[in-house]
Amino acid sequence: MKFPIELPDNKEFDAVGFGLNAVDHLMVVPEYPAFDTKVRFMEHKQSAGGQTATAMVSLKRLGLKTAYAGRFGSDSEGHFGLKSLIDEGVNCDFAQMIEDARNQIAFITIDARSGERTIVWDRDARLAYKPEEAPVQFGSLGRVLHLDAHDPLACVRVAKAAKESGTIVSADIDNVYEGLPELLPLIDILIGSKEFPHRVTGITDERAALVELHERFGCVVVGMTIGAAGAVVCCEGDFIESRGYRAPGGCRDTTGAGDAFHSGFLYGFLTGADVETSLKFGNAVAAMKCSALGARTALPTRPQLEEFLNRQDP
Q1: Is residue 6 part of a domain?
Q2: Residue 186 sits in which domain range?
Q3: What is the dihedral of CA 137, 143, 147, 152, to 10 degrees?
Q4: What are the pLDDT digits (tens) for 125-172?
Q5: pTM score
Q6: Which of 30, 184, 219, 298 could form a disulfide with 292 if both were Cys (CB 3.0 to 4.6 A apart)?
């Protein structure tokens, strides 16, 4: 199925992202510890992450031109996170470093048996954007604007200006935030976590909830990721489901898998692929990411993605 959305031309970037960055402290343990016990970790790593920042890095590795707008703390983690984006070649002209603020961090415990993780995180309130602080002109610089819907009212201002310029708006959303109902009608491609459609609509049946999202908010493509099973989207009344791929060498860490999926899906969309192929790209990038520790460690280049798809069936 072709995407029923017209991509604009004559934009400075293929994709621009406004949203979260983070620095993750990852610990691999033999098994998740029981309450009030001690366990020795097997491996530890500090890694840059964050939904939108990771998606922009991934799209850049796949050969597209990307930019990121978001806020970093002025601590060592903030400098580490910003440098990680610059080193990848992501444009950070609209990124800000907030003096005396701590960067968003997460402590992530990974069960070595499955690669599944438990996250404990914090975000300094000084990193949040008030609506009047939003970089309104930023979204219109890309053919696609990608959001994670944190600071929803600021996202509304960026998304409105982007849509007025012809930019397509994409979103990766897990939870319901204050102000979200004002943002959702501005989104063209809405793919959330498995729980998100139910959280918004109250409908238990997953496919019925996706239909309700489309009818209530008008999003052209709605969908959800379903872990190792892959992803499903609803487009023009049709459901398209794509099974997941096995992580090469086994799943080491699911941190950032959803971010990676979105980058693969948007890569397909931006390069003229159909919906089915874009879903395969999304699932493949997510699987490759899960083969290594850290949100960005194994994000593939375009040749690596093509090689993976040529040699492994879902």
Answers
A1: no
A2: 13-309
A3: 40
A4: 999 999 999 999 999 999 999 999 999 999 999 999 999 999 999 999
A5: 0.95
A6: 298
